Amino acid sequence: MTRHYLDHASTSPLRPIARAALAQALELPAADPGRLHEEGLTTRQALELARTSVAELVGARASEVVFTSSATEAIVSAVWGSLTTIPGTVIATAVEHSAVRASADRVGKLRTVGVDGHGLVDPQAVADAIDDEQRSGRSVSLVCCQLANHEVGTIQPVVEVMERAKARGVRTLVDAAQAVGRIPVDMRALDADFLAVSGHKLGGPAGSGALVVRRGIRIAPLLVGGEQERPDEPGSRTCRPPSPSARRQPSSSRPSPTKRPKPSG
User: Fold this and answer.
1) 6 Cβ partners below 8 Å, 6+ apart?
2) CA gap 193, 211 in Å, rounded
3) FRET partner for 242 with CA separation of 20 to 30 A, picked from 40, 127, 196, 216?
4) What is the pLDDT of residues 27-37, one digit of tens each?
5) Whole-angstrom Cα distance, residue 28 to residue 14?
6) DSSP of 56-124, one letter per residue?
7) What is the pLDDT of residues 155-208, one digit of tens each?
8) What pLDDT score does 8 carry?
9) Which of 52, 81, 85, 79 is nearest to 67 (CA)?
């Protein structure tokens, strides 16, 4: 009997083109990309090429892409960092990834907004939750809304949710792990402050992800130490090449975002 793997919402098998890119990246010198010697600069060039490719995939600037080990790490970094920077309440839909709920509960207060029978959230319900918290004198640290659901495939009205949060001065996180590679994703059009993505959801290697942080936004780092990646995410990125699937993804399989503003800087 021939078996066909369909559980791509959990993880996708490594694509041949990603496997080839990974093998090529592992041939790079074992060097710190922050160093100025030839080996370091060679590694840095490959790292920044990957960063630029991920940025192009989600309509962001390369300087906004922070590599992580997974979308879970990206989500926790955004939630924990936001709560540490602006203590208060995290407002999230009832169908968010457990990383949102667990990290918010650990260091702050979580308020969930219900969804309908299709898993769809009402943007006005999110706005009402923000208003209620602010009227009670509580700060709202972050609003979290996934772009696509991993179980029923619901695509959330993220733009409308972001608009209402921004109108109330609240930062926003979009979990796009299930959307990237399947539907067009444009961080500028979404108007999000944070965007979480995963490599293994679209045929890249496990252990690769990214948190896209809007230019000008600063949060406390989840981990402290070296600042090779940026102050928000310590540690070197050398032998673990991030998401070769994004770097080498064939153009025919990439989404074609509509009317994406060209990133500058």
Assistant:
1) none
2) 10
3) 216
4) 888 888 889 99
5) 20
6) HHHT--GGGEEEES-HHHHHHHHHHHHHHHS-SEEEEETTS-HHHHHHHHHHSEEEEE-B-TTSPBPHH
7) 999 999 999 999 999 999 999 999 999 999 999 999 999 999 999 998 889 999
8) 87
9) 52
